[in-house]
Amino acid sequence: MKTLISQAEGYFEVKGSKFLSFLVPFSAFSECLALSRSKHPKAVHFVSASRYINEHNQIIESFDDDREPKGSSGMPSLNVLRGEELINVAVIIVRYFGGQLLGVGGLVRAYTSATQNVIETAKIRGLLHTFSKHKSISLELAYNKISQCEYKAKQLGLSVYKDEFLADVVRLRIEGEESAIESFSQELLKAYGLIIH
């Protein structure tokens, strides 16, 4: 699976109708949809589709036809995201009506093309990366153990955040790829007998 590191934009036109497409990280989906509506007040449809992994490791998918005929826009866009094996992303397609009806088949082709176009742009710009599940753990560590902990975390490509300084310990949060977090947890358990949250 692949995911997106920053927003990409695409464009498709057919029979006078213009389709502006935006591929965004899922975390920015709601904000980008609201922004699209305010930036394009004369657009007639704001079609969207999304795929993300929730905290239970389930893929959650959604789509919205935004008053286009049922099955003509949101689902075809979602199918492109599925076909490209994209995760934790959303696509928003802003349609300006060109005065000529496209029919359901024409809409399916147009929304599919608009979604493919923005994904192709993301590929060209190097914005798609292999997806790896991230995880976070919390622990409390004596002050004299922190530098060893940070050294080990850095070796594994993990980020260390000092959330709270207490009397005898520091409350740390370690974030990074799930496999690296598992290795880190095992090392800490062996070294200090720590219980990880």
Automatic annotation (TrEMBL):
The UniProt family comment states: Belongs to the IMPACT family.
The record ties this protein, via InterPro entries, to:
Impact, Impact_N, Impact_N_sf, Ribosomal_Su5_D2-typ_SF
A biological process from GO: regulation of translational initiation
Impact N-terminal domain ranges (all copies):
15-119
Protein name (Swiss-Prot/TrEMBL): Impact N-terminal domain-containing protein
Any matching Pfam family: Impact_N
- Which GO CC terms are listed, alphabetically? cytoplasm
